[in-house]
Amino acid sequence: MKTKLLIAAFVILQSSLFVSLQAQSRFDATVFAGANFCQIDGDQAGSYSHVGLRAGVGTSFALSSDVSSPWRMTVELAFTNKGSYNKTYNTTLSASYIEIPLLVTYSGMENRLRIGAGVAPAVKVGESFTNGYASDNIFTTVDWLPLTLSVRYRFTDHLGIEARFQYSALSVTNDNSNGTYFLLQSNKGCFHNLAGLGLTYTF
What we know:
Porin, mainly beta
């Protein structure tokens, strides 16, 4: 029930954001949908074998008073699924989140190309597991600091494609006695690692 309510709230927020953004000429509005190709560093599975959905809405606005500035701030609201799949043992770890990416972007090629970097904090709305995992509370409630890189190209005035890379800078599992570490040995556990590809439509 909790997951259904959160997803319903997400859809309502998406719709409200989208309508409000269309009314403001200084902002652009984008809808997007695509796939995440995921693994979890530290779970010893390896390879980007887990495929998850990513979909949502976003907007960007100029970081200066000049609305034509190539430097923009992008804010998104998205549903995203991350996890891992171990083909050898046929085990799957999957976690779904509502995320709010915050990216500083630079546009070029007459605004056709947009490159961005930032973070995408996310709140868990569900998780599932198969074969060999004894706990139903494997992942932390919040993925606090997923570092995010984005490259988006519009091949028409509206339709585009986006490639995205994301890596969780802080451990995303509750039990950090095993796993690997990122940057610091004290930052031990498991980390979402994914590459995404999707379509965008900008209004």
